[in-house]
Amino acid sequence: MMQQPKVSIVIPVYNASRFIERCVESLFAQSYKNLEIFLVNDGSTDKSGELIDVIASSQPNVMTVHQENRGPAVARRSGALMATGDYLMFLDSDDTLEPNAIEFLVRKAAEEKLDAIYCGSSRIISKTVIPSPPSKKEGVMTGTEMLQQLLDPEFYYIACMCFSKRKFWDANMFVENRNMPSEDILTNIKLVKKCERVGLYNERLYNYHFVETSLTSTRRYFKQSLWKQYFEELHKLLDGNEWTQAIRKNEIYTFGFYIDKIDVSDEWYKKMLKYNVSNYSRKIKVLHALLHWPWLLRLCVNGNRWRKRMLKK
User: What is the mean pLDDT of residues 308-313?
Assistant: First the structure.
């Protein structure tokens, strides 16, 4: 009987003593058993380091790594470079997987000869489960087609919920600048550029647990200068003219929703105001128009977020 492919799972751990056992238990409960698990302690100051050593002491397929605090991207790199599996995936320490997740991913990869797979997720807030919206484009696609999905700012996915062949992962896949916003998107762009066949499925296999200190739950904004670095890196990865419109759409979307204080003296901002958006969606056109008056843009965005919260109550 042919041996099942080995799957390596890398979990960055930073001050996660409240969550890490729940996370790891979801892996022990997997219907698919040929796993190796790397718990990378990224300089935690709580009991996380001790806790993961206790977990690993009773589980032969669990390995721990202890390093100084350098951010989740470097922690993922440390685990990825040690991985010996046929496939590799990442899991955040406060999240969990559905019991059939790995079995589904391995089966789909074999059936469709896939290099990478992206799946749906559920957000869990105070035990309330909110399923991710289904992707309009589901099934097998080329790496270029998946890249187009990743560049759509309204495409919903959890970056960790990517399952791919281990051979694609080297040290250059990771962004070392720990202050870089959306570094996981840059990493996934690097990945799909290497892929010939990618699967995108709506099965919700990843459970994203909201906690008070999480980036998304606090709606943390990044400085304009850091986003500028992000887009400089994006341009380096995608230097062809066919990506110009997609990148500009992302720039406008970012200024609309993820930059708190817009520096109107910045040449990047002035250049963006001159973009021709006649072929863009209505939402992007509105955002672009509001960018001429940043105070009004922020007022409208915050007002719309407040309205949505009220409708959910």
Answer: 65
